[in-house]
Amino acid sequence: MMLLHSILCCRKLSNAANVSKIVSHFMHLSMAKRFSISLNSLIHLFLKVRNYYDKIKQPMDLGTIHERTTANKYTKVVDFMNDIRLIHDNSLLFNGPMSQYTHVAEEILAVAVEEAQV
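RE: above sequence
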């Protein structure tokens, strides 16, 4: 819920600047989490990720979404939302419903849906 609370300052997805602002908040929070992981967790994650592309045929990440927003690649909010949903769906498929990564993806999706009013 802290992720939701910290992002709610961005109210509408009515233009590219707002989409970019939301993605920047996601990136900031995502990067912060990256630095708080232990060495054992990193080793476990590396071993698990080796099989990622066997399961996930259409990868998506916040970095790609950020690049697309800064390059004005999203012409419709629905395209942005499809990529956000893809992050969630990929995490659910690869990590499972109880994973901390899937829970973060669910929060990101919930915020994006609320902000986009989709």
